[in-house]
């Protein structure tokens, strides 16, 4: 499902195997477990100067929710329940990424569709391979409503309403060069190895800043108030901000 490696001060979380990395409950749980390890190990090592890269093996970064598992429920109500369950679990995963006390970089090495696109967009930076793969919101084509927290995430990260319209109302598949020109991703690279290498290089540069992780987490959440609320994260309290001030470099 996924592996977690650490090189220096950079954690690399990889969705493993040659499949399309559908986000089933088990896969989401495995990713969340890996992120919990990242959070624990970084805190144990001082809580500052770390970064995370998330990538995937094969042709897909992630092709979205596991619709086959949902359909195997049989009845319409069971299918709906399974879809809602995956949506709820992914909302918790997005909250985990928004709360991770370090910079996060998605190395999109293949197609990223629907929930898989949202997984990539939940990172602070997105690097994408340029020779193949696209970003795609398939919901309009397969007649599924888009969860409110998906919309909040896209409104927070994709500021051009025309680009958002293309994605969610037209179901346009957007390749890396176009995605970079439209501000959806940060950089396009030749192929999968180059994309991972660039993501790790960015992660190393950010880790070298030696920022305090909890301060980074707090500022990140402050820049994304709509999606922070949509995924159910509590508003930061005055006491929590005071605690962060006591840990400052002043």
Summary tags:
alpha/beta, four-stranded mixed beta sheet, 250 residues, six-stranded mixed beta sheet, single chain
How many β-strands, per DSSP?
10
Give the overall pLDDT as a whole number.
95
Output the number of helix runs. 12
Strand content: 15-25%
End-to-end Cα distance: 43 Å
Uncertain regions spanning at least 5 consecutive residues: none
User: Could you give the order of the helices and strands?
Assistant: EEHEEHHEEHEEHHHEHEHHHH
* Major pleated sheet: 6 strands, mixed
- Based on Cα principal axes, name the global outline: globular
Q: Please bin the fraction of helical residues.
A: 40-55%
Secondary structure class reads alpha/beta
Strand order of the largest sheet: 1-2-3-5-7-10
Radius of gyration: 18 Å
Give me the oligomer status.
single chain
Short description:
The chain is built from twelve helices and ten strands.
